[in-house]
C-alpha cells in the first residue's frame, strides 16, 4: 500500500487556545497515528513575518506552538516536525514557482482582495500598506506543500483557495518542465468542531475571546467563569441551542457526558454549576498536557534540538528534490553538455489552458485560464471526468454559448476575452 502524505503548517504569531486545540492540534495528532499516513507538520515562521513585525513575539510563539504540539502527544519520531525557516529549499522553490505563477492568479487571492477592499472603503490607494509578502503568501505556501509532494493538506475552509492555487502552480510547472509535482488536495474534516469563544462568536485571536490552551488551573477556572450565558436563574430550564458553554463542553466530553449535561440544562442547573462542570471536564484532559508543556517550556534547548532533527529529516527529501527541479528548469552545470533549446516549449508557456480537477465534493470541474493566469471560465461540477472533458470539447468547437448552465460566473471577464483565448488556442493547435 502506498502512503498518503499529509502536510500542514501553523503560523507562529500567537499563543495556542482551546479552539486551536480542538480544531487542529487534537485531530492532527490523532491523524498522525493512522497507519499508512506520513505526516509533515511545520511551524510557518516565514509566513508569520507577513503579519508580525515583532521578533520577540515570533520567537516566543514558535516556542509555545512547538511545545503545545509536543505536549499534546505529537511524536517527532513518527511525524516530520520542523520549522519552515530551517528548510531553505522552500524559499528556493518559491522563486521557481513564482516564475510559473500568473500575477492574475495572485490578484484573486481572498486575503489580498480583502486588503484592497478595505483600502477602497477607506478611500485609500488599493495597495496601501500591502507588502509584496502578503501578495506572495500563496506562492510561499505552495512551495511548503509541493516541496514534499504532499497529497492531502488539512486546513480550515479559509485556506481552500490557497490549496487550489498550489495545484495550479504544480500543474503549470508540470506542464512546462515535466511531471515533478503531485497535485495536492485540501482535507477538510467535517467532524471537527469550531469552538465558540467567551462571547459566543468563533473562538479567535482576532475577536479577543479566546481561552489559552495552557494557563494555570486557576486562570482556566476564571476564564471559564467569563463565558457569556443568558440571565436564567438557577432552577429555570436552560437552552442547549446557542449555548457556547454547552458547545465547548461537547467538544471535550463523551456522548454520554454530553447527554448528562443536556439533562442538567433541562432540569435548570445554575450557570455557576455548569461552568464548574465545564472547568473540571476540560481540566481533566488538559492537566496532563499542561505538566508536559511546562516541562518543555522550561527546556527550550530540547525543543530546538527536536526541530533541528526534524529539519534534517525533511531536508533529506527537499535537498535532492530541489536539485532535480533546478536541473529541470535549466539551472544546470555547464560542464554537463548543453542541449539545443526547444523553441516550441517557450511559446507553450504563453497559451491559455484548461485545467481539470476534482473537488472535495467528489465532482469534477474545469477552469479555462488565460496565459497570464487570469481565470476566464469556471465550470460547475460534473459527475465524471469524461463529462468535464466532453464539455471542454464542446466549448472548443462551439464557443462559450454551448455550455449555458454549466459555467459559474467569473467577475470581470468579457465574452470576447473568452472567445479570443479560445481562438488563440485553436490557432496554436493548427500551427
Ligand atoms: N496559511 C496557513 C494558515 O494560516 C498556514 C500555512 C503555511 C500552511 N503554509 C502552509 C498550511 C502549508 C498548510 C500547508 O493557516
UniProtKB/TrEMBL annotation:
<feature type="binding site">
    <location>
        <begin position="156"/>
        <end position="158"/>
    </location>
    <ligand>
        <name>ATP</name>
    </ligand>
</feature>
<dbReference type="InterPro" id="IPR002305">
    <property type="entry name" value="aa-tRNA-synth_Ic"/>
</dbReference>
<dbReference type="InterPro" id="IPR014729">
    <property type="entry name" value="Rossmann-like_a/b/a_fold"/>
</dbReference>
<feature type="binding site">
    <location>
        <begin position="202"/>
        <end position="206"/>
    </location>
    <ligand>
        <name>ATP</name>
    </ligand>
</feature>
<keyword id="KW-0547">Nucleotide-binding</keyword>
<dbReference type="GO" id="GO:0005524">
    <property type="term" value="F:ATP binding"/>
</dbReference>
<feature type="short sequence motif" description="'KMSKS' region">
    <location>
        <begin position="202"/>
        <end position="206"/>
    </location>
</feature>
<feature type="short sequence motif" description="'HIGH' region">
    <location>
        <begin position="12"/>
        <end position="20"/>
    </location>
</feature>
<keyword id="KW-0963">Cytoplasm</keyword>
<dbReference type="GO" id="GO:0004830">
    <property type="term" value="F:tryptophan-tRNA ligase activity"/>
</dbReference>
<dbReference type="InterPro" id="IPR036913">
    <property type="entry name" value="YegP-like_sf"/>
</dbReference>
<comment type="similarity">
    <text>Belongs to the class-I aminoacyl-tRNA synthetase family.</text>
</comment>
<feature type="binding site">
    <location>
        <begin position="19"/>
        <end position="20"/>
    </location>
    <ligand>
        <name>ATP</name>
    </ligand>
</feature>
<keyword id="KW-0030">Aminoacyl-tRNA synthetase</keyword>
<dbReference type="InterPro" id="IPR010879">
    <property type="entry name" value="DUF1508"/>
</dbReference>
<dbReference type="InterPro" id="IPR050203">
    <property type="entry name" value="Trp-tRNA_synthetase"/>
</dbReference>
<dbReference type="GO" id="GO:0006436">
    <property type="term" value="P:tryptophanyl-tRNA aminoacylation"/>
</dbReference>
<dbReference type="GO" id="GO:0005829">
    <property type="term" value="C:cytosol"/>
</dbReference>
<keyword id="KW-0436">Ligase</keyword>
<feature type="binding site">
    <location>
        <position position="144"/>
    </location>
    <ligand>
        <name>L-tryptophan</name>
    </ligand>
</feature>
<dbReference type="InterPro" id="IPR002306">
    <property type="entry name" value="Trp-tRNA-ligase"/>
</dbReference>
<dbReference type="InterPro" id="IPR024109">
    <property type="entry name" value="Trp-tRNA-ligase_bac-type"/>
</dbReference>
<feature type="binding site">
    <location>
        <position position="195"/>
    </location>
    <ligand>
        <name>ATP</name>
    </ligand>
</feature>
<keyword id="KW-0648">Protein biosynthesis</keyword>
<feature type="binding site">
    <location>
        <begin position="11"/>
        <end position="13"/>
    </location>
    <ligand>
        <name>ATP</name>
    </ligand>
</feature>
<keyword id="KW-0067">ATP-binding</keyword>
<comment type="subunit">
    <text>Homodimer.</text>
</comment>
<comment type="function">
    <text>Catalyzes the attachment of tryptophan to tRNA(Trp).</text>
</comment>
<dbReference type="Pfam" id="PF00579">
    <property type="entry name" value="tRNA-synt_1b"/>
</dbReference>
<feature type="domain" description="DUF1508">
    <location>
        <begin position="360"/>
        <end position="402"/>
    </location>
</feature>
<dbReference type="Pfam" id="PF07411">
    <property type="entry name" value="DUF1508"/>
</dbReference>
<protein>
    <recommendedName>
        <fullName>Tryptophan--tRNA ligase</fullName>
        <ecNumber>6.1.1.2</ecNumber>
    </recommendedName>
</protein>
Amino acid at each position: 500500500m502506498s502512503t498518503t502524505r499529509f502536510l500542514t503548517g501553523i503560523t507562529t504569531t500567537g499563543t495556542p487556545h482551546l479552539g486551536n486545540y480542538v480544531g487542529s492540534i487534537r485531530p492532527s495528532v490523532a491523524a498522525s497515528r493512522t497507519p499508512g499516513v506520513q505526516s509533515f507538520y511545520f511551524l510557518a515562521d516565514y509566513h508569520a513575518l507577513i503579519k508580525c513585525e515583532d521578533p520577540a513575539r515570533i520567537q516566543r510563539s514558535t516556542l509555545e506552538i512547538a511545545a503545545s504540539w509536543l505536549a499534546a502527544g505529537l511524536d517527532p519520531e513518527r511525524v516530520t516536525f520542523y520549522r519552515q525557516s530551517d528548510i531553505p529549499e522552500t524559499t528556493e522553490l518559491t522563486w521557481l514557482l513564482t516564475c510559473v505563477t500568473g500575477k492574475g492568479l495572485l490578484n484573486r487571492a481572498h486575503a489580498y482582495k480583502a486588503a484592497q477592499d478595505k483600502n477602497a472603503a477607506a478611500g485609500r490607494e488599493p495597495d496601501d500598506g500591502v507588502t509584496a509578502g502578503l501578495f506572495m503568501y500563496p506562492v510561499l505556501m505552495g512551495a511548503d506543500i509541493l516541496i514534499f509532494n504532499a497529497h492531502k493538506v488539512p486546513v480550515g475552509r479559509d485556506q481552500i483557495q490557497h490549496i487550489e492555487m498550489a495545484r495550479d502552480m504544480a500543474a503549470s510547472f508540470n506542464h512546462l518542465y515535466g511531471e515533478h509535482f503531485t497535485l495536492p488536495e485540501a482535507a477538510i474534516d467535517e467532524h471537527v468542531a469550531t469552538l465558540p469563544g467567551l462571547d459566543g462568536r468563533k473562538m479567535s485571536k482576532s475577536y479577543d475571546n479566546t481561552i489559552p490552551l495552557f494557563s494555570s488551573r486557576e486562570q482556566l477556572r476564571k476564564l471559564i467563569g467569563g463565558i457569556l450565558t443568558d440571565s436564567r436563574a438557577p432552577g429555570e430550564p436552560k437552552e442547549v441551542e446557542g449555548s457556547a458553554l454547552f458547545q465547548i463542553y461537547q467538544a471535550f466530553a463523551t456522548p454520554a457526558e454530553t447527554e448528562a449535561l443536556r439533562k442538567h440544562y433541562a432540569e435548570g442547573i445554575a450557570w455557576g454549576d455548569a461552568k464548574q462542570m465545564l472547568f473540571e471536564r476540560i481540566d481533566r484532559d488538559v492537566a496532563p498536557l499542561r505538566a508536559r508543556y511546562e516541562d518543555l517550556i522550561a527546556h527550550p534547548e530540547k525543543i530546538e534540538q527536536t526541530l533541528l532533527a526534524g529539519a534534517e529529516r525533511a531536508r533529506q527529501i527537499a535537498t535532492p528534490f530541489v536539485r532535480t527541479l533546478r536541473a529541470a528548469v535549466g539551472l544546470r552545470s555547464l560542464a554537463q553538455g548543453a542541449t539545443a533549446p526547444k523553441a516550441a516549449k517557450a511559446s507553450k508557456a504563453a497559451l491559455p489552458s484548461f485545467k481539470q480537477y476534482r473537488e472535495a465534493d467528489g465532482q469534477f470541474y474545469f477552469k479555462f485560464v488565460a496565459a497570464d493566469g487570469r481565470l476566464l471560465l469556471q465550470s460547475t461540477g460534473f459527475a465524471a471526468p469524461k463529462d468535464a472533458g466532453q464539455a471542454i470539447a464542446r466549448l472548443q468547437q462551439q464557443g462559450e454559448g454551448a455550455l449555458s448552465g454549466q459555467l459559474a460566473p467569473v467577475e470581470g471577464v468579457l465574452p470576447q476575452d473568452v472567445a479570443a483565448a479560445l481562438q488563440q488556442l485553436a490557432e496554436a493547435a493548427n500551427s
